[in-house]
Design brief:
mainly alpha, GT87, transmembrane, transmembrane helix
C-alpha cells in the first residue's frame, strides 16, 4: 500500500484538466473559449464536472430523440423501408404490440401469439418494459405506440444520466472523462433502439462502487445488471484475475456471492412460477442463428453457405475462451497490474467480436468502459466514427432488402464493409488498451503516478502472484508528481 505521505500528495493533486493533457480536447475547447488557464479556479463554479456532464448527456440524448422524429411521426407506421432509409428504427414501439403489452399480457406468464410464445428478454428488462406500459395512456394504437416509446425514452434518459455521472465520478481526478460518454455520437443514436441502457447504467454504478471499495454493493449491482442483460457477468472474470494477482480473494468472494444473491432475488420468483416464460431468453439466445453485424454473417454471405447454429455456438464459445485465455496471460505477465476498467473493456469487446450477432445498440455496452479504459479523444472518436458508419450501414442494408425492386439502400457487399469497419474500430481500440497494459508508462490515466483509480481495494495493492518478470513499480513517483504540480499551477517552478 502507498505510504501516508504518498497518499497525501496523491489526494492533494488537482483534477486532470483534459484540455491540458489531450490535443483533441484542447482543439475542441476552442468552440467554448479555449483550454482552461493555469490559474483558473473551477472549484468556485456551480458548473461542477458532474453537473456539466449530466447536462451534456441530457442534451445529446434529446438530440438522439429528435433524430427519431421521422419515425415517431409516420415511418414506424407506414411501411418497413422508410424507417430504415431515415435511420430511425426502434424496437420499442413495435414490441409494444408484438409482445403483448398493448393487450395487457403479463410478461413470462402469458403466452404471446406467434412464434415467440413468451417475452425473449431477461426478467429485469421485462419488468422495465412492463412498468413503461403502465404509464402509457390510452387512445388509438398508433398514439399508444408513440406514447410507449416516449415513456421508455424518458426512463432511458434517466439511465443515460446515471451512466454519465457514474463514469464522471469513478476516476476521482479525471471527472471530465465523463464527457466521452455524454458526447459519444453512437450513444445518442442508439440509446432508444432497445432497453440496453438499463443494464449499462447498473454496470456503470457497479464500477463506481468497486472504485469506492464497496465489494458488496458492486456485487449486488452486477447481479441486477445481469438480470437485465447477460454481458455484465463477464466482468467477474477479469476481476478474479486482478484479485488473484493482488491476493484479494475475500473481497472477490463477497462480490461473487452478492452477484449471485441479487440475480436470484430477481429471477427466482419468475423461475419458480413461470419456468417456461423465464427460460425463453436463454433458449432464444442458444437457438438464434447467425444474424446482423457479426463476422459470421460475412462468412456466410461471401461463401453462400449456411452454418449450423450448434456449430456457430461451439466455435464462438471456443473463440471467446481463447480471448479470455489471452486476457489471463496478459493480466499475470504485464509489467504492472492492469487497471480493472482496461480488462473489463477487453472482455466485453471480446464477447462482442466473437458473438453471432451484433445489434447496433450493443455499442452502448462498451462506451462507458472505453471512457474509463482509454480516455483519449482521438482514438475514442476514431472508434465512434466506425460505429456511426456501421449504424448507418445496417439501416441502409435493411432498406435495400425491404424496398423490393427499387433496391433503395446498401447491397450486401456494402453492408459487409460496414461490418468490417465496426470490427476494425473495436479491434483498434482493443490493441491500444493492450499496448497501454504492456507499456504502462503510456497509459494516460497513470501518467500522474496513479495505480488504478477504478480498482477500489486493488488501488495501490502489492502483487502476490505474477508470472515471469512481471512486477508493479512504486505507485507514485515523487519527481513526476512535482513536475505535474508545476504544470497545473499548484506550485511555482522556482520552488523546485
Amino acid at each position: 500500500m502507498p505510504s501516508a505521505e504518498e497518499t497525501t500528495v496523491h489526494q492533494d493533486r488537482p483534477d486532470v484538466p483534459p484540455t491540458r493533457r489531450d490535443e483533441v480536447a484542447a482543439a475542441g475547447s476552442e468552440l467554448i473559449g479555449g483550454p482552461i488557464g493555469r490559474w483558473a479556479w473551477i472549484g468556485s463554479s456551480r458548473l461542477t464536472p458532474v453537473r456539466v456532464v449530466a447536462l451534456v448527456a441530457i442534451g445529446m440524448f434529446a438530440l438522439g430523440m429528435v433524430q427519431k422524429m421521422p419515425c415517431y411521426n409516420w415511418a414506424w407506421f407506414r411501411g418497413a423501408s422508410s424507417q430504415y432509409t431515415h435511420a430511425c428504427y426502434s424496437d420499442i414501439p413495435h414490441l409494444y404490440l408484438g409482445r403483448g403489452f398493448a393487450d395487457n399480457l403479463v410478461p413470462y406468464f402469458d403466452r404471446i401469439s406467434g412464434d415467440m410464445q413468451y417475452l425473449e428478454y431477461p426478467v429485469l428488462t421485462g419488468l422495465f418494459m412492463e412498468v413503461a406500459s403502465w404509464f402509457t395512456p390510452g387512445g388509438s394504437m398508433q398514439y399508444r405506440e408513440q406514447m410507449y416509446w416516449m415513456v421508455n425514452a424518458g426512463m432511458l434518459m434517466i439511465c443515460a444520466v446515471v451512466i454519465a455521472v457514474c463514469v464522471t465520478r469513478t476516476h476521482r481526478r479525471r471527472p471530465w472523462d465523463g464527457l466521452l460518454v455524454a458526447l459519444a455520437p453512437a450513444f445518442a443514436l442508439t440509446a432508444t433502439i432497445n432497453w440496453d441502457l438499463l443494464a449499462v447504467a447498473l454496470t456503470a454504478a457497479a464500477m463506481l462502487m468497486w472504485a469506492r471499495g464497496r465489494a458488496l454493493a458492486f456485487g449486488i449491482l452486477i447481479g441486477l445488471a445481469t438480470a437485465a442483460k447477460l454481458y455484465p457477468v463477464l466482468l467477474l472474470g477479469p476481476l478474479f484475475l486482478l484479485c488473484w494477482r493482488a491476493g484479494k480473494f475475500r473481497e472477490y468472494g463477497t462480490a461473487v456471492l452478492a452477484t449471485a444473491g441479487a440475480w436470484l432475488a430477481v429471477n427466482l420468483p419468475v423461475m419458480l412460477l413461470a419456468p417456461e416464460g423465464w427460460k425463453r431468453f436463454y433458449v432464444f439466445s442458444r437457438e438464434r442463428g447467425i444474424d446482423f453485424g457479426s463476422f459470421w454473417l460475412i462468412i456466410t454471405q461471401r461463401t453462400g453457405t449456411s452454418i449450423d447454429v450448434g456449430v456457430v455456438n461451439t466455435y464462438a464459445t471456443l473463440l471467446m475462451l481463447l480471448a479470455c485465455a489471452g486476457i489471463l496471460v496478459l493480466t499475470l505477465t504485464a509489467p504492472r497490474r492492469p487497471r480493472f476498467a482496461q480488462l473489463a473493456f477487453l472482455v466485453v469487446a471480446a464477447f462482442i467480436l466473437t458473438n453471432k450477432v451484433y445489434s447496433p445498440q450493443y455499442v452502448l455496452w462498451l462506451i462507458p468502459l472505453a471512457a474509463l479504459a482509454r480516455p483519449r479523444w482521438r482514438d475514442f472518436l476514431i472508434w465512434q466514427a466506425c460505429e456511426v458508419l456501421y449504424y448507418l450501414g445496417i439501416w441502409m442494408y435493411l432498406a435495400y432488402t425491404t424496398s423490393g425492386d427499387a433496391h433503395k439502400g446498401l447491397p450486401a457487399e456494402g453492408y459487409q464493409l460496414a461490418i468490417a469497419l465496426h470490427l476494425a474500430g473495436t479491434l483498434y481500440l482493443c490493441a491500444l488498451v493492450v499496448r497501454d497494459i504492456l507499456m504502462p508508462e503510456r497509459d494516460g490515466v497513470r501518467a500522474d503516478g496513479s495505480d488504478d483509480p477504478s480498482g477500489g481495494i486493488l488501488d495501490g495493492a502489492e502483487d502476490r502472484f505474477v508470472l515471469g518478470q512481471a512486477r508493479r513499480p512504486a505507485p507514485y513517483e515523487a519527481q513526476q508528481v512535482e513536475r505535474e504540480r508545476v504544470e497545473w499551477g499548484v506550485r511555482p517552478p522556482e520552488t523546485l
